[in-house]
Amino acid sequence: MNFIKRGFLGITRKKGKSLILLAVIFILGNLISGAFSIQQATGNVESSIKERLGTAATVEMDHEKINALSEEELGVMEFEDIGVDLIKQIGELSYVKYFDYSMSTYLGSESIESYQGEGMEDEVAMTGPSMDYRLKGINYAPVIDFEEQKGKLVDGRVFTQEEVDNGTSVAIISKKLADKNNLHVGDTFTLTNAVYTYDEETGEEELATSRDVVLEIIGLFEPQSIKEDQGESSDGGMFDWMDIEYQNTVYVPNAIIASENKYNMEEYMKTDAEFAAAMEGEEQTFEYYTPLFVLNNREDSEAFEEEVTPLLPEFYTVINASDQYDSIAGPIESMSNLSKYVLIAAVIATVLITGLVVLLFLRDRKRELGIYLSLGERRGRVVGQILIEVMVVAVIGITLSLFSGNLLAGQVSDTLMKADSNMSDEGVMYYSEIQQTNLTTEDVLDSYEVNLNSSYILGFYGIGLLTILISTVIPLIYIVRLNPKKILM
Amino acid sequence: MILEAKDLNYYYQDGEQRRYILKDTSVSFEKGKFYAILGQSGSGKTTLLSLLSALDSPQSGTVSFNEEDIKKIGYEKYRRNNVGIIFQSYNLIPTFTAVENVLVPMSITENEIPEDSKTVAYNLLDFIGIGKSKADRFVNKLSGGEQQRVAIARALATNVELILADEPTGNLDEEMEQEIIDIFKKLAHEHEKCVIVVTHSNEIALQSDQAFHLRKGVLSSYE
């Protein structure tokens, strides 16, 4: 009849009280379990969405800071460029897995047809100058978009560093564009760099001059992430547009774009004397690079930002892909906050209510406890007996509430998210060059899932049992202060 | 000498005045004897018993068990291993059966207890007059006399030499009182226990081997 056995007998011989305690722990456990489930689920969403947002970072003009300037300040302000040297310096940081810097431009073509989407072949072509092909410059020869699974090379090869450095006229195009024009690896195709003049009176554009840009196809790619997302989202139109844009992207070395931009600008100045006069004396550069840094780990984002920010010229800022989580995770964030407060309140309520219930039960058993002490039982073992009685009931109550609280959390969070997403501005999509996937609030809500996993189970048992343990400390103080003589004589 | 109290003082502080319950009380007890301490209500006899059983401690003076100060032994340890206490209101655990109540001190004591403690408990109860069928009943289903027997069995369960009883027959009728007295006499004379009973019953005093009278905190021999 040691204290452990006495503890178990205490549970079975006082069924009524054990059931009351079980009911209290079960009800409060549901609150804790529910709130904890939501906390876990929102935490999982955050990490998975940030994972999908990627580990990319870039350096951009700080538009918020610029918008805060007065017109006078803007008038005299000279903005520095991000030079290649600085990009390389940042790229050398230990957080960076690999980096690239690129320019882009749009060119048209008279010899090939652009991809216009599935089932759009019969559509009437747009009138006016067509600039359907987006040339994306490359300095990192293996192409970051392929390394980061935005696209996948399905035929041919990527660039060599020599081709990139020399600006060789080679290109990687999408398989669909190639198929449409019966092009293969090793073929050449021609784009047109057309210079247009604009008649302000008529509003018409007129071709001033043009030159051919002949490129040899060295590889074919297929889009990856956009294609995947397309099937998951209801916002098909937007993704169609993005898909078309990407299918018509032509990867080329940066030097080709610099050369075409220079040609275009010089020819345009020949047609517009006023513009040419305005540009006279200005240092002419045709190299405006957008850097892209892919970090080793998502956790490095903050450290990377902290280290890079002091290196940047004024009015530039670091943008991390995961920064966009805050703007698309509104409903999840509000639910996470709510569940945090509910969890804290539930833990406090459990400590107080369970503590009070146990204390009341112990007051009824004062004489019994006095008997143990009069028989010379160690106070620690009397405490142990009570702990066993409470904790065994607590384990049962917590186990039951583990499942019911989880179910409850699923129902409550569904309702909350529906209400919240109805209130948020639907249809807004967030896209950035640094994103590898193009996520919407809907994607965030889709990835929210309340489920029973080992970390949730362990976490909930930890919180639940610790809370009950703390709530039993109050009665323990009561036991320690008991005087057997006063109770029994 | 198994138990000795020397110069015990126990008082309550009432403002600046001390109200003595026990004043310079000294007394000693031997094994194999049945003692009675008589006194009226409020005479301090229960206080004396609580000091002898280490349920309380005196402001001054010592209680020695086998010539060792019980303070040195440790009050809790002394209660656990050296003394069996019987209360007027039995103080049994109502949610346990009679035999379970007897088993409780057996699991607490550090004294050597036979491995088959349950059989020992049944035998003890049988010795006291509680048969197997009653031993398996919850104690609140037993009569007052039977409950007191269970309490005596519990006091004996740890094989101690010293039994202290506080008004053990206070709630019992005359017939039952005699049965309990007989048990105490048997324990003292046949089993070499030292049995000290605090009571207001002259009957117990008359049948005891030695009786003391406690009046206004002062102990004297009972004539």
Automatic annotation (TrEMBL), chain A:
- Give the UniProt entry's GO cellular component terms: plasma membrane
Q: Which UniProt keywords apply?
A: Cell membrane, Membrane, Transmembrane, Transmembrane helix
List the membrane topology term(s): Multi-pass membrane protein
Q: Where is the ABC3 transporter permease C-terminal domain?
A: 343-484
**Protein localization:** Cell membrane
Q: Domain MacB-like periplasmic core spans what residues?
A: 92-309
Q: Extract the GO molecular function terms from the UniProt entry.
A: transmembrane transporter activity
Q: Where are the transmembrane segments?
A: 341-362, 382-403, 456-480
Q: Quote the protein name from its UniProt record.
A: ABC transporter permease
Species of origin reads: Oceanobacillus chungangensis
